[in-house]
Design brief:
Oligomer: single chain
Order of helices and strands: HHHHHHHHEEHHEHHHHHEEHHEEEEEHHH
Distance between the termini: 77 Å
Radius of gyration: 26 Å
Number of strands: 10
Helix content: 40-55%
Number of helices: 20
Shape: globular
Structural class: alpha+beta
């Protein structure tokens, strides 16, 4: 009885009316105590991650009012219709595979069950074992140039193939929030900055430790929320997260399961995990008559006179929402930019028209000119393996923002003699 009621509670939307409908369907009638039970459940779990089945069962055991109703109506209560655990994504029209068991998941990934357990690494074997050969990731630390560092966790080829399979078969089928512009097809830094052109005030905020702050529990919850059974969701979450061994990093945020920066699945999972925060921030911006866009961990808001008057208080509301959603703001990077100063977002200027920064244009033009005069070999100071492709990419990006300047840069690039 309790097991089936727990499945009924979890089988759909976590809303009072929907829970009452599912429980009444299961029990064959709408008992008077069902709606108060649903309200207590929402109150107990509404602000947390989606609970597991065992947690809902424990809630029912601990609920005194349910226990009283159960004892009072014990002889009348019966299961009229069985509701089994959901085995596929709910009906959102997404063309994703229905995976009912861990064996089905292993088959879908072309793995044996033992290989699936090894790569998902739910028991943190790779983190505990001393040999780097037994680990699924390679690690390196990049100096960000401002006194801080970024840890890159690059999956080894076999795990990378598995993650690419997850990305193509599942994650790419899930539409991100319209405000999300990073790692999304047909969106870019240009679509991120364009809504903020010509605004009276632009507020830019940055998230601290964006990828590692998304925990393994949150990722597993995403897969459970969309309907995969707990065993399958746990394995999918394990395949998409990592724990860094202590001999690599002693930063506690990396020691627990988190999204690894360097895995092909991490950007899509980050957008999905941030969906509710995007909804709340979009609603906040809309209530203030402002625009909101996000590119990975960069958040941008802009508006007119109303936002200008209360932008400091507005930024405090944004930070509070992010804190409630499990994210933190890097306050040192928060910028309030009015029309009298340069309003820059993701390396672009948004005051009147979208444009690249003058300093960036001048630097790239000088590099191309020096390559033309002295040869490209001496200009590759950062040691790019394919310097020509690097320059072509920078010129292409500049041309996409400002075609007129891009044409001048392309003319210089075309004259360079490559050996």
């Amino acid at each position: 009885m309790i097991d089936t009621l727990a499945y009924a509670i979890l089988a759909g939307e976590p809303e009072v009316a929907a829970i009452v409908e599912r429980c009444s369907f299961t029990l064959g009638r709408n008992w008077r105590w069902v709606e108060p039970l649903a309200r207590r459940y929402i109150e107990a779990t509404g602000s947390s991650l989606r609970p597991r089945h065992r947690e809902v069962v424990q809630f029912l055991f601990d609920d005194a009012y349910f226990h009283r109703a159960y004892v009072k109506h014990r002889h009348e209560l019966k299961i009229a219709r069985w509701i089994m655990p959901p085995v596929q994504w709910r009906h959102f029209g997404w063309d994703v595979p229905a995976i009912a068991t861990s064996g089905d998941l292993a088959d879908w990934l072309a793995l044996t069950p033992s290989e699936l357990d090894w790569f998902a690494d739910l028991k943190a074997w790779g983190c505990k074992k001393g040999s780097p050969k037994l680990r699924h990731y390679r690690y390196r630390v990049l100096d960000k140039g401002n006194g801080s560092f970024r840890s890159i966790e690059a999956p080894k080829p076999r795990l990378k193939w598995i993650q690419e399979r997850m990305l193509a078969g599942i994650l790419d089928k899930i539409p991100p929030h319209p405000a999300a512009n990073g790692f999304v097809k047909k969106r870019s830094v240009k679509t991120f900055a364009a809504p903020h052109v010509g605004q009276r005030v632009v507020l830019r905020m940055d998230l601290k430790d964006f990828f590692p702050s998304i925990s393994g529990a949150r990722v597993q919850t995403v897969f459970r929320t969309f309907g995969y059974p707990e065993a399958v969701a746990d394995l999918l979450g394990g395949l998409g997260t990592n724990r860094v061994p202590r001999d690599v990093s002693r930063d506690t945020i990396y020691e627990r399961p988190h999204l690894p920066q360097g895995a092909p699945t991490s950007p899509a999972l980050a957008n999905i995990c941030f969906y509710r925060a995007d909804c709340r921030l979009y609603g906040l911006a809309e209530s203030a008559g402002a625009h909101y866009t996000r590119y990975a961990d960069d958040l941008a808001f802009s508006g007119g006179e109303d936002l200008d008057r209360r932008v400091e208080r507005f930024s405090a509301h944004v930070a509070a929402i992010l804190l409630e959603e499990g994210f933190a703001v890097n306050h040192r990077k928060t910028r309030i930019m009015r029309q009298g100063v340069r309003q820059h977002l993701a390396g672009m200027v948004a005051n009147h028209v979208l444009n690249i920064r003058r300093a960036d244009y001048d630097c790239l033009k000088a590099t191309l000119t020096n390559c033309l005069r002295h040869g490209p070999e001496g200009q590759n100071r950062d040691g790019h393996t394919d310097f020509r492709a690097h320059l072509e990419g920078r010129v292409g990006w500049a041309a996409s923002i400002n075609p007129e300047r891009g044409q001048k840069l392309r003319a210089l690039l075309a004259k360079i003699e490559w050996t």
